[in-house]
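Schema walk-through. Below, the input block comes first and the output block second. Nothing else is stored per chain. Lengths vary across the set, and this one has 357 residues.
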Amino acid sequence: MRIAILAHVRQRIAPPFAGGMEAHGWQLAAGLQARGHDVTLFASGDSDPRFRIDPVVAEHYERTFPWAEHRGSAPLIAHLDAAYAAACDRIAAGGYDVVHNNSLHRFAIEPRRTAVTPTVTSLHVPPYDALHWFVRASATPGHRLTVTSATQLAAWWPEGAPAQASVLHNGIDTDAWPYRATGDGRAIWCGRITPNKGPHFAAEAARRAGIPLDLFGPIEDPDYHAAEVAPLLGETIRYRGHLPGEALAAELGRAALFLFTPCWDEPFGLVAAEAMACGLPVAAFDQGAAREVIGEAGAFAPVGDVAALAAAIRQALAIPRPVARDRAVRMFGRDRWLERCEALYRAAIADHAALAA
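--- output ---
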C-alpha cells in the first residue's frame, strides 16, 4: 500500500523520543516500511531522515513555540492551522491508498477530507474540548478511529462507541527491549519530567520503600523539576538524563523494578510496556489505562498515595520477571500491532470503495 502517516509536529519524530507519541509514529513508519509498504511521513522537517519526509513545518514547534509558554496561543494555532491545511491538501492530491492520522489536528478528520482519502485516525489522548466534538462528527464510512485502550474508548464515547471506532493497543519492538533474567535492585522511572507524569511521587515512594531509583527523560517543565524533583535527588535518587532507546533498554534490563506514576487519565503507557518487555515488574498508580496495560505484571496504588505506592513497590518485586516479559510480547508485540493496522487500512479502503460504487 501507498501510505501517508500524518504526525503531530510538537516534537521531532526521531530518537531519542520525547514521549510515547513520537515513539509510536517512528515505530509505525519503520514497521510499515519494513513490511514492504511505500510510506511517506508527514512530520516536522527535522524528523528522522531515514524516512521519506514531507515536512508539515520546517522544524518541530516546541523549538519556536515552547509548550510551557504558548499553550493555546493564537500565533501557535495559526501556525499549525496553516501547516496542516497545506499538508492535508498535499495528501489529498497525492494518490495515497490510505492516511494514518496521528496529528491530533481537526483538519485531518473533516468529512470532506476523509471522503477523498481513506483515513485511520489514532487518538492518543483523552477527550478534550478542542478536538472532542470534531472527532464525534467524523465517524463516517471510510474513516476508522482507534484509541489505545478500552478505558479511552469509554471516555471518548460514554454512550457507546460507533462501529468505526475500536481499541488498537500500541505496539513495541520487543527485540529492542531485550529480556534479562535478573536485576540489580534498582528501580527506574522514565518519561517526560512534567507534573502529570508524577516523577516526584516515584522518588518519594522509592525513598520510603528503601530502594534506589534512577529517573530518565527530558525535562519538559523546568520549574516543576526545580521545585518538586531536584530537592529529592541525592545518593539513592538520581536524575540521569534523556537516553536513546538502546541505552535506556540496557538500563532497564539491569534494573529490578519499574515505577509508573501517571497523574492524569493516561491513555496507554508505552514506557510501562517497554519496561515489561525487559522483564521488569511495575509498581503503578491505578490511573487511566495503567491496569489494562500492566495487568498481572504489576501492583497498584491510588493516585498520589505515596505510602500505598511504596507498598506496591514491595509487592511488585515479588512478581517473577518472565510474567512481565510474557505479557509484553503477547499483548504488545510489533507484528501483532502492524497486522491490526493493515486490517484497519483495508477496512477503510473497502468502506471508501463501497461509497463510491
